[in-house]
C-alpha cells in the first residue's frame, strides 16, 4: 500500500530514476499487488486542492486519470466503516494503518516519519521508505 506522498511525488515529476516512479511502474506492470483504498485518493485530492504549490502543478484531471490507470492495475478495497482506532501520531494517517491491517498489506510505503516511527511490533505489516521497498523487492526478485 502506498501513502499519498508517494502518489503526489509521482504526479509532480516522473523521473525514471526515482523510487516512486519505479514503485508505480512495478505496480502498473503487476509485479506486486497494489492495494488502493478510496480514502487514499481523497487524501491526494484534498492535499493538492489545499496546497498552492501542488495545485499549481497537478490538475484535478491528472489525479483522476492517474487513479483510473492505477485502478486498472491495482486492487480496490472497500471504504472503511465506523470510527477508526487511534494508532498514529497524526490522526489523518489512521485510515492507512487501518486499511493496511484489514486488507492484509505486506508493506506500507511512505516518507512520513509519523508512520515510519511507529513501533513495528504493534503492526501486522512493515512500514518502509520507498528506497527500502525497492531494495527488498529486488532482493526477492519481484522487481
Question: Can you give a write-up of this model?
Answer:
With 143 residues, this protein is mainly alpha-helical. It has a single domain, classed as 5'-nuclease (Rossmann fold, 3-Layer(aba) Sandwich). The chain contains 8 helices and 4 strands. It has a two-stranded parallel ribbon with strand order 1-2. The chain has a two-stranded parallel sheet with strand order 3-4. Helix 7 links the parallel strand 3 and strand 4. The radius of gyration is 15 Å and the shape is globular. The two termini are 16 Å apart. The relative contact order is 0.19. The mean pLDDT is 95.
- Helix count, DSSP H or I runs of 4 or more residues: 8
* Count of folded domains: 1
Q: Into which percent range does the helicity of residues fall?
A: 40-55%
The CATH class assignment is Alpha Beta
Strand composition percent: 5-15%
Instruction: Report the CATH architecture.
Output: 3-Layer(aba) Sandwich
Provide the low-confidence segments as ranges. none
What is the CA–CA distance across the termini? 16 Å
Topology:
Elements (H helix, E strand, L loop, with lengths): L3 H9 L6 H10 L6 E3 H13 L1 H4 L4 H14 L1 E3 L16 H9 L4 E3 L3 H4 L9 E3 L1 H10 L4
Parallel strand pairs: 1-2, 3-4
Amino acid at each position: 500500500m502506498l501513502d499519498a506522498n508517494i502518489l503526489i511525488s509521482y504526479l509532480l515529476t516522473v523521473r525514471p530514476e526515482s523510487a516512486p516512479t519505479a514503485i508505480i511502474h512495478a505496480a502498473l506492470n503487476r509485479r506486486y499487488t497494489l492495494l488502493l483504498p478510496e480514502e487514499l485518493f481523497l487524501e491526494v485530492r484534498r492535499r493538492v486542492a489545499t496546497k498552492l504549490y501542488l495545485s499549481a502543478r497537478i490538475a484535478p484531471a491528472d489525479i483522476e486519470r492517474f487513479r483510473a490507470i492505477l485502478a486498472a492495475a491495482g486492487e480496490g478495497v472497500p471504504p472503511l466503516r465506523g470510527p477508526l482506532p487511534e494508532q498514529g501520531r497524526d490522526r489523518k494517517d489512521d485510515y492507512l494503518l487501518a486499511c493496511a491491517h484489514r486488507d492484509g498489506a505486506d508493506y506500507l510505503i511512505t516518507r512520513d516519519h509519523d508512520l515510519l516511527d511507529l513501533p513495528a511490533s504493534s503492526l501486522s505489516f512493515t512500514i518502509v521508505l520507498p528506497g527500502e521497498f525497492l531494495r527488498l523487492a529486488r532482493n526477492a526478485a519481484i522487481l
